[in-house]
Amino acid sequence: MNIFKKILLVCLALATVLLDVSFFSAFEIYGATIISSLAVLLTMAITDRSRNYLIYVFSLILFFTIFSSLPLLVIALEFLALPVGLNYVMTRYFPRPKAVTSPVYYLFGNFIFELVLLVYSKEYNQAGLLTLSYFVVLNSILGVIFYILQEKVKNDFNIEEIKA
Amino acid sequence: MKKHNNKLRIFAAIFIILIVLVGVFPAAKVTARSSLYSFTGRISGGLFSFGTNIRQKFSFIGNIGRLRSENERLADMLNEFQVDSSRIAELENENKLLKQELGFFQLDQQEVLVPAKIIQREPVSFLDNFLIDKGSSEGIVKNMAVISHSILVGQIDEVYEHSSRVVLITSKDSVIQAMLQDSRAKGILRGGLSGLFLENIVSDAEYKDGENIITSGLGGELKQGILIGKADKAGSSGTGLFKTVAVEPLVDLTKLEIVFVQK
Predict the structure, then answer these.
(1) pLDDT in tens, B238-249
(2) Hey, is the C-beta of B235 within 8 angstroms of any chain A C-beta?
(3) From B193's CA, which of A91, A105, B14, B96 has a CA 20 to 30 Å away?
(4) For an interface test with A, which of B11, B59, B125 has the most A Cβ atoms less than 10 Å from its Cβ?
(5) Cβ of A11: how many Cβ atoms within 10 Å?
(6) Do B120 and A22 touch (CB under 8 A)?
(7) Any idea where the domains of chain B sit in the sequence?
(8) Do B125 and A62 touch (CB under 8 A)?
(9) Structure confidence at residue A110 (pLDDT)
(10) Angstrom distance (rounded) from CA A139 to CA A103
(11) Nearest Cβ partner of A121 from B15, B48, B172?
(12) CATH fold of the domain at B113-262
């Protein structure tokens, strides 16, 4: 992976975080918002068999530490432990996801993400559960869209073919 | 492969150092936030307005059916408010005259409102706060009241050079000294996902449904008398010595775009 790709991943992290704190934060449904950076992160975690996505992970942690009021420990749990754990389990025990099976990974990833926030905020009530369900559904749909898009881009723009 | 891993390690090490610096040392975090906000503030401000416009257009389509009844209800409310406002004007005059008679003069403190645009919101659920485009260079300081349509919506929590972070009254981290306007019973206003509640109200306090909730001025952080919302008896509860009053906010906090900081 060359330096330009690394810089591109850092810029992508900044762009998605900026989208989350501005554009997507305007759309709130029962306390749940869209987190595009999480959708991109989960897509990378379930498709990347190398460890290149870690650059995006560290960039996200840095930008979320700056932009969000969440403590560093929660950010590290959400944006480091969750994708790395998911990537480890997936590459070891599960086959590469397809468009049909990918929703399972997104539902699981988003559920764990929001559950950690629920525990952190101690909102164990009906409203908290409603937010959790809306968040999981909304962000899983976005995740699947990202997954299909990246598969399409990968198939349509074959790097080896371009080089040849 | 080994070379590639080494490069990745160096990259990761740089990021870990930066993350620890920003996450552990508050001064480094403030500097990083301040510089990034000044760099990204315009972009995120524009994106936030764009997102709000799209949402408003979609919500308008969804609410067409409700508009007629809403319009009638608002027309009735307007009539009531006109009556109230003329009564308040009379009372103000009477109050002024009585003060003069009693020799009780108070210098009118000029209230300064600083208009501010919302440029960012907290991306994750359960945390209600946002960033405005006014900071210490505009005279903003911590704990100032943030209002919209003369109704309290939050309080300044963190101040940077050209931006400030506002904690909304609905945030679980928000604690505001408030009281019921007519019964004068004082309590603590707390937010959360399940709603807004005025807690620690003495159990023998009587109040009406729809009674105004205002800031009590206790603690000295906020001025007394800023309107917050109205009491909702249906959602209220009480056990033992204290009761909890459910509060209905008068402003839709998810639709805020411009707010005013009360100096």
Answers:
(1) 777 788 889 988
(2) no
(3) A105
(4) B125
(5) 11
(6) yes
(7) 1-103, 113-262
(8) no
(9) 94
(10) 10
(11) B172
(12) Thrombin, subunit H (2.40.10)
